[in-house]
Amino acid sequence: QNAKNLQRLRDGDPTLSHLTLGKVPYLYSYLGVGDDFGWLGYFIGRSQCLRELEIYYLPEGKEGFAFMEGIARNQSIREIRVCNYLINFCNVGFISSMRVALHSLPQLEGLEIHDGNRCPDGWSEQRTLLESGVCKLQQLSLSGNYYIGDPGVGILSNRLRGIGSSLKVLALRSNFIGNDGLLAVVEALANCSSLEMLDLSRNDFSFAEAGLGSLSGWLQRDEVNLKSLHLQCCRINDEGLRVVAQGVANNCEELDLDENRTFTATGLSYLSNTIRSDSCRVETLHLELIPIIANDWLEVLARGLADNKSVRLLYLDNLFLDNDITVASAGWVASSTALCDTCSVNSTYLSNHTIIDICQKEDEEITRPRDVSLRRDISQYLRLNREHPQYAARCKIIMNHPHLDMEPLLLWGLKFLPLAVAWFERSKECTKLTIYDEDLDSRRLVLEESDETFQSKALTAMYEFVRGMPMEAMKRRKELIVAAHDGNDEIARIDERYRQALEQRDGKIKQLEDEIARLKERMSGEGVQLGERSV
Fold first, then answer.
1. Residue 460: pLDDT band by 50, 70, 90 thresholds?
2. HSE-up of residue 21 (Cα within 13 Å, Cβ side)
3. Is there a contact between 84 and 110 (Cβ–Cβ < 8 Å)?
4. Are 445 and 453 a contacting pair, CB within 8 Å?
5. How far from the centroid of its chain's Cα atoms is residue 477's Cα?
6. Which side of the chain, N or C, has fewer Cβ within a 10 Å radius?
7. Backbone conformation region of residue 202, classed left if phi is above 0, alpha if psi is from -120 to 50, else beta
8. Strands 434-437 and 442-445, how do they pair?
9. Helix (H, G, I), strand (E, B) or coil at 73
10. What is the pTM of this model?
11. Strand partners of residue 357
């Protein structure tokens, strides 16, 4: 395999765009220990197709230096990833040769150095890599270096100012960063106006309210356009979540809070209240490995989701879920209500029609309650939101309100009638829509009713609306009495409008009565024909 990959490099194989060095045979094309790294560097230097280089092993001495010299001549590599546990970053000579190589790669866009915890001096030398003049760097990832800490981040922040204008992805995972370090990072982010993803996961922010508040303030700046923020396993407490929630929710599309088991229902309520805002931009919310359902916190979260119009994906975790509906019934009922509040037509309309799934990583479906009816409702509403977002509100209204109360609409008068008719016309499509049914393992109709039944429902609603207009007529009569008492010349005009409204109402009633009669006759005839076929 090594010989083949060397030959592919020598021959300029256009399909060889990714090369891994070291004993990692499951990663693309790789080269093992014991090869001539000098020749390998030479062929890499000539390659015009190589785009990504992963380094899990490099020999010390002349072969290692010769290899780095080859890399320095390459003009095609865009990303370099180095796994430090197999490389001696305490070797000052190696760091120097890598710095020279990176300085010669102005086309480099991504640099990742992982597991850099060999020794304190190793980090001291690593940070000099950022002085190599790589001005187009778009991705920088430094993770697993226990010797960075707050002091090291302060030094790193000074280096970030030189590449901040082009940086789009910054990952500083597992570097023992605390409050002071976070403050230093945020200060350096002032120059990172193009940053789209920030990963600060697995650092210790248990006492970092000031740092998190500074991060929240930075997110709210007009020039900042961060899309994704990862704060996984950072030991964030209730107060920390409160200070960071608003800035994150109103400015980021993805928020990862996985494994922060240190906040309670109080902290979750801060997040829930924040995502209720119309200005919330979060589309993907990660809350895995947090005992939300086990502690009945789902009800707290559901209150925020009920008014939210942006969240599409909610990631929870089966580790803390219980299939038994008696354990967390309030939370599941609250979730169902958030997706479709059946108290009134208006409440249903204002429910959440945006969230499309409650799941685990890799889109595995979450374990939902055993209660068949509740499970069916939640699954059905989520699938409606996902498969038919433009019809979700209408479908939920029709399926949960067989008799539409038209009385609240009477105050608009007959001028509202065309709008009501148009609503039913646009809602006809709901009778043809299908969704996947997990119980049947097949697709089924969203509404189990015929076109004639739907049309009858529409006509009945319109008929009740027009029949209710005498109430409005009585209001007009009161206007006449007041005008007569004041001796106002407006009497004649009010009386004329009253007469016209009555005539218009009577005409509409007659039209609707005729249409209902024809529809009943048609449905009766179809029933007779169906009976004759049966016989």
1. confident
2. 28
3. no
4. no
5. 55
6. C
7. left
8. antiparallel
9. helix
10. 0.80
11. 313
